[in-house]
Amino acid sequence: MQTLYEKIGGEETIEKLIVAFYQYVLADPLMIPFFENTSMEKLRKMQKAFFSIALGGPEPDIPISLYEAHRGRGIEVRHLTRFTEHLMETLLEIGVEEEDAKKVYERIATFSNEVLGESSVDG
């Protein structure tokens, strides 16, 4: 059975997604403060690993949990909502079918507590 990662085009699509997605995010006044002192190279690498794992692709080692990466950063539901709006827009823009884009959104939404810094799957 094909994973969602494979269905949307695997690593090649994830690479396109990350590049196009951060063009939106970094142009958004609500989002830019979270990325002002961030290494974009490191962020892209972490996002590639996150999307791969979340969508059933290869599971590379990630040196830090989502919870630890986001805890204490002041991320609120409104920020997460904007993030996912940009994600959906980008998925459709790069050619992911709407049904598959919704499935990607659903998978990513399962990590919302960790991103909001509210709980840790690591304990």
How would a textbook summarize the main sheet?
none
Question: What is the N-to-C order of secondary-structure elements (H for helix, E for strand)?
Answer: HHHHHHH
Give the helix proportion (percent range): 55-70%
C-alpha geometry = globular
**Average pLDDT rating:** 86
Radius of gyration: 14 Å
Give a short synopsis of this structure.
By secondary structure, this protein is mainly alpha-helical. It has helices spanning 4-7, 10-25, 40-54, 66-70, 77-93, 98-109, 112-115.
List the helices and strands and how they pair.
Layout: H1 4-7, H2 10-25, H3 40-54, H4 66-70, H5 77-93, H6 98-109, H7 112-115
Helix pairs in contact: 2-3, 2-5, 5-6
Descriptive notes:
This protein is 59% helix and 0% strand. The longest helix has 17 residues, at 77-93. The chain has a single domain (4-115), classed as Globins (Globin-like, Orthogonal Bundle). It is mainly alpha-helical. It is built from seven helices and no strands. The model has no long low-confidence stretch (mean pLDDT 86). It starts with a helix and ends in an 8-residue tail after the last helix.
Quick tags:
Globin-like; 7 helices; mainly alpha; 123 residues
